From TrEMBL:
Ranges where the Alpha/beta hydrolase fold-3 domain occurs: 1-133
Protein name as annotated: ADCL4 protein
Pfam families: Abhydrolase_3
Classification via InterPro entries: AB_hydrolase_3, AB_hydrolase_fold, GDXG_lipolytic_enzyme
Key words of the record: Hydrolase
Lineage: Eukaryota, Metazoa, Chordata, Craniata, Vertebrata
Amino acid sequence: SHENICRYIARESNSVVVSVGYRLAPEHKYPAAYEDCLNATVYFMKNAEHYGVDPANTAVCGDSAGGNLAAAVSQTLAGRSDLPSLRAQVLIYPGLQALDFSLPSYQQNRGVPLLFRERATFYMLQYLDGNALHMQDALEGSRVPPDMRLKYRKWVSPD
């Protein structure tokens, strides 16, 4: 689905683009996709010179769920001393939080195609545990324990 854009980026930026075909939910629950992306990135960085790439010029990129994975891989690699630092991370409409689906961004974009609020919630639940039985609870925020909501209020709140 992303071959054309990857080819365009490679051509226009005169760079090597590696697109990871990671395992998908609901058949493969978290952390399968994350592990696939992390393993592919680490392998590429350790073998980048074989592809004519300076490993210090490696960036990760993703859109939607791939943006979530790119962010997670970036955070994981930030603590690795056996690899060079990533040059950049590019996140295109990433799904980055699943604590509160009633935050302003979800409310403002609830009816914007392609990912309506309900659909985004459904896919996030599929990714996390493959179970969308509690979708209404997730939409209402009642699946998040009060102590967790308080703990993360500084980062995840309408304020």
